Amino acid sequence: MVKLRSYNDYREACQYPRVTDVDQITGDLAVQAQLRSLYRDVNDIEFYTGLFAEDTREHSAVGPMIGRLVGVDAFSQALTNPLLSHNVYNPETFSQVGWTIIHETKSLAEIVRRSTPTGTPVFRVSFTREGARVE
Q1: Do 66 and 11 sit in the same domain of this protein?
Q2: Measured between alpha carbons, how far is 134 from 28 in angstroms, rounded to an integer?
Q3: pLDDT band, residue 111 (cuts 50/70/90)
């Protein structure tokens, strides 16, 4: 039987401080009440329960721990992706036409336009919300 570690153990592994009360997970009073009714102690909160009980971050669709876990996974995969290897990332793999397209692409919007049916309007393509302050 595989048993996941607690939410707090995962917080610690993600270099977040351990929570000592459910109000540090969420400001939603109804969710706090549910967590208190289900768990004797904050250290008993299960990984997935805590993960999805977290308040979302400003300008985000997910809570801080999901954001960190996804980020770590995405960047570690990017750095070990075989497509970045000289043995795979070369003109022979992509064809000369594909290689030229890859190297002439300057924006995410170009990729989206190439990947959608002709005539489909693409107004704005970005990884940030329009008007968001990027620090």
Answers
A1: yes
A2: 27
A3: confident
